[in-house]
Amino acid sequence: MKRTFFTAALAFAVASSGAFVNLTAQGQTADRVYDNGPVWTISRIETKPGMFNDYMKYVSTSFTQIQEAGKKAGYILDYKVLSVDSPRDHEADVILMVEYKNMAAFDRSFAEQDAVTSTVFGSVPKSSQAAVARESMRTLRGSMTARELLFKK
């Protein structure tokens, strides 16, 4: 049994390293037609009944202030707020998209993050209270982080 496991592990290691060498030897990385672009976070929000306008007030103030601070600091390139036409039950009716310069934009110190939060909400504890209040207006139906691929010309 041990011998079979060792043989399988060795075969996997040889095959894996051979595949890597083979890809590199064939110049696969040099033949890519794309390069890494900016990084997007996409959040799907379902506003609770009768709360769309209240949630838009939050988005037009606090959310926007946070994004503008990120743009000023240079790690956010842009952001978008989309309204979904005719969502089905329990699906998002608002999509928030934030475009970051790169993955390094997520590697900021807590002190820097807290400074922005305190500027917008007054303090970190007040931002926590605002997060709880925000949940009375909406339900997060999912979010993702994705890298845009830029095609070479």
Structure, described:
With 153 residues, the protein is of the alpha+beta class. It has two domains: 1-31; 34-151, Alpha-Beta Plaits (2-Layer Sandwich), CATH 3.30.70. Helices cover 46% and strands 28% of the residues. The protein has a four-stranded antiparallel beta sheet with strand order 2-3-1-4, with helices on one face. The longest helix has 24 residues, at 2-25.
Strand content: 25-35%
**Radius of gyration, whole Å:** 22 Å
CATH architecture of the largest domain: 2-Layer Sandwich
Structural class, from helix and strand content?
alpha+beta
Tell me the number of strands: 4
Give the SSE order as H and E letters. HEHEEHHE
* CATH-assigned fold name of the largest domain: Alpha-Beta Plaits
For the record, the CATH class of the largest domain is Alpha Beta
Short description:
The chain is of the alpha+beta class and 153 residues long. The protein has helices spanning 2-25, 52-73, 110-121, 124-135; strands at residues 34-47, 76-83, 94-100, 138-151.
Write the layout of secondary structure elements.
Blueprint: H1 2-25, E1 34-47, H2 52-73, E2 76-83, E3 94-100, H3 110-121, H4 124-135, E4 138-151
Antiparallel strand pairs: 1-3, 1-4, 2-3
Helix pairs in contact: 2-3, 3-4
